[in-house]
Amino acid sequence: MIPSRVIGGRYVLLSEIRYGRMGAVWRAEDRLTRREVAVRELQLPAGLAPADRAQFRDRLLRDARTAGRLRHPGIGAVHDVITDDDIDHVVSELIEARTLAATVAEDGPLTERPATTVGRQVLSALRTAHGSGLLHRDVAPDNVLLGRDGRVVLTGFGIAAALEGLPLPAPFAGPVGYTAPERLAGAPASAAADLWALGATLFHAVEGAGPYERATAAETLEALTHADLPRTRCRGPLGSVIVGLLARSPQGRLSAEQAAALLDAAAGGAASARGVLTWWRWSRRRPPIG
């Protein structure tokens, strides 16, 4: 804790909430509004060229503006992007929550009902973002917040896009086990890739680890590329969503609309998704597309 530190002459850091790949997330007070906010520091590696730092900052500002215009309970409000001591910071709504990763590590895997709630709310947030032309690119358990009030929030919009293409060491690239296979093969970011990452995140939620998680990043990459998808203990609509989103081929993957129908069914009964389930079972018997 650094009680005397002030970011940008405005945000007084009060305490550290958690520490991520690029630095700390702080509880802070906005001197202007007197409200508490979250301040996320984004420390780039030393030695990065000034042009690359400027590119990162420009991209971050662009996507932060887009995210700031989104109005959805599953997307934390972005208030400000500010540079202090040559480190960029995103100032956003303060949410009293633990990450999904921390929750699973501390309490064990989620049961199907809370996992379904996580899936519905994160998917709804993604559909809102995708509808505005904003991709997330880093959907993972560390970026899903589970609020004390039951709210589920997807954080980190714009950060992965700002980092893309920069010469960065591996830790900045994000967990490989939550990166869609086509992205690892060089395909551009897409809504379908975000959905694959949601499937991997839900697998982690109910199983306690990602579907292809291994001891090292290299082993995880090998498994993601070549290993069969392990079975999940979930059955019914939630299990179908996880398996359907984790299809290796984007063309064979569940769409957001299909996944939403199945998750609605998991939350409120199977009748509302019988048609989608029928389609999914039929589609699994077809030869792979592409």
From TrEMBL:
Key words, A-Z: ATP-binding, Kinase, Nucleotide-binding, Serine/threonine-protein kinase, Transferase
EC number from the UniProt entry: 2.7.11.1
Xref: PROSITE patterns: PROTEIN_KINASE_DOM (PS50011), PROTEIN_KINASE_TYR (PS00109)
Stretches assigned to the Protein kinase domain: 11-263
InterPro entries, sorted: Kinase-like_dom_sf, Prot_kinase_dom, Tyr_kinase_AS, Tyr_kinase_cat_dom
Superkingdom of the organism of origin: Bacteria
UniProt protein name: non-specific serine/threonine protein kinase
Keyword Oxidoreductase: no
GO-annotated molecular function: ATP binding; protein serine/threonine kinase activity; protein tyrosine kinase activity
Keyword Hydrolase belongs to the record: no
